[in-house]
Amino acid sequence: MLRNGLEPWHLLIVALVVILLFGSKRLPDTARALGKSLRILKSEAKAMASDDAPPSATFTTGPQPRRAPEPPHPRTESGADPVR
Q1: How many helices (H) and strands (E) does the chain have?
Q2: What does the alpha-carbon distance between residue 42 and residue 34 come to, in Å, rounded to a whole number?
Q3: Alpha-carbon gap, residue 46 to 51, rounded angstroms
Q4: How many CB atoms lie within 10 A of CB 18?
Q5: Whole-prediction pTM value?
Q6: 3-state SS string for 21-57
Q7: CB atoms < 10 A from the CB of 27, how many?
Q8: Are 27 and 19 in contact (CB under 8 A)?
């Protein structure tokens, strides 16, 4: 029954239905957007495969707050660290 499932005329009918549903003016824009999305997906997948770090570690959420500098260690007059 499904031996010759997709004949060329089946594809022609599907193409005509798609054109009738979406219109011929929107199809090039849709195809362009789909192609751009696939290129982005492909490049991101390649970048994830080449990175050792997980992808969430490579992105930052914004500027990181500055930490206050640590106070210097108390030293004795001789310059040696105090005995604890």
Answers
A1: 3, 0
A2: 12
A3: 9
A4: 12
A5: 0.40
A6: HHCCCHHHHHHHHHHHHHHHHHHHHHHHHHCCCCHHH
A7: 14
A8: yes
Contact of 17 with 11, CB cutoff 8 Å: no
Residue 35, token pair as written in the block: 């192609």
CA distance 3 to 55: 44
CB 19 within 8 A of CB 13: no
- Distance (Å, whole) CA 56 – CA 53: 8
Q: What are 12's two structure tokens?
A: 């022609």
Residue found under tokens 């604890």 = 84
pLDDT tens, residue order, the chain (84 aa)? 456 677 888 889 988 998 888 888 888 888 899 999 999 999 999 988 887 555 555 555 667 777 777 777 666 555 555 565
